[in-house]
Amino acid sequence: MDSILDLKGRIGLVTGAGQGVGRQVALHLAANNAGGVVVNDFYAERAEAVAEEVRRLGAEALAVVSDVTNYESVQEMVRQAESKFGRVDILVNNAGNAGPTQGLSGIKPFWETGPDDWAHWLGTNLYGVLNGTRAVVGGMMQRRYGRIVTVISDAGRVGEPHLAVYSGAKAGAAGFMRGLAKAVGRSGVTANCVALAGINTPGVAGMIPNDEALKKMLRSYVMGRLGEPDDAANMILFLASDAASWITGQTYPVNGGYSVSV
Fold this sequence. Notes:
Number of helices: 9
CATH architecture: 3-Layer(aba) Sandwich
Radius of gyration: 17 Å
Largest sheet: 7 strands, parallel
Number of strands: 7
Shape: globular
Structural class: alpha/beta
CATH class: Alpha Beta
CATH superfamily: NAD(P)-binding Rossmann-like Domain
CATH topology: Rossmann fold
Order of helices and strands: EHEHEHEHEHHEHHHE
Helix content: 40-55%
Number of domains: 1
């Protein structure tokens, strides 16, 4: 029996794929018969390193440096992808957190911040999703096939007091995807979100100063551990495949029980 997750030669584009969850998504696509994978990152060396891993799994790859907060940069990335592969069938809006150049340290309460502080959260987590989706969705509709998966955060579902603007940006991305799903579904395009809690990635590791802090953090997780990039990539692969062809407009928590809902 053929795998229900077989991507049948589809072309995938993963933003922020130079490390962490994005890297693992790119590898999952390659390992499940993607015809090509576009590996995006802000840093060329990271993108090319993951592209080489993709090639070793037997799939074609294209490493593209692009800043997802910049509309023209994203348009150029998609032009390069279409020049090499002819189309983009799967878009994974994975780039997130505070963006490529802004660390997660020194986070201040909302009432001590201003528009300059908000910009990097909104730019990467909301405008980056709008930019990437706008660049590919027209072609998907014309071809009457497309899968758009946006990685949000449980912060966007339940709110995080120290990350209020980030929570709002992720909630905005989820609302956008729900609206988009209703707009493009008749054209054979699905749009879904995966909401992550703490995943063992470089970004999250930088927020945990010591083992005691990790233990305290894990008290909120029913499963008693952080997630791994594989945990996230498994759900994203499913939503990118034809196994999920009747699923759209949904948000799936992959969170180790950090939050639960009906």
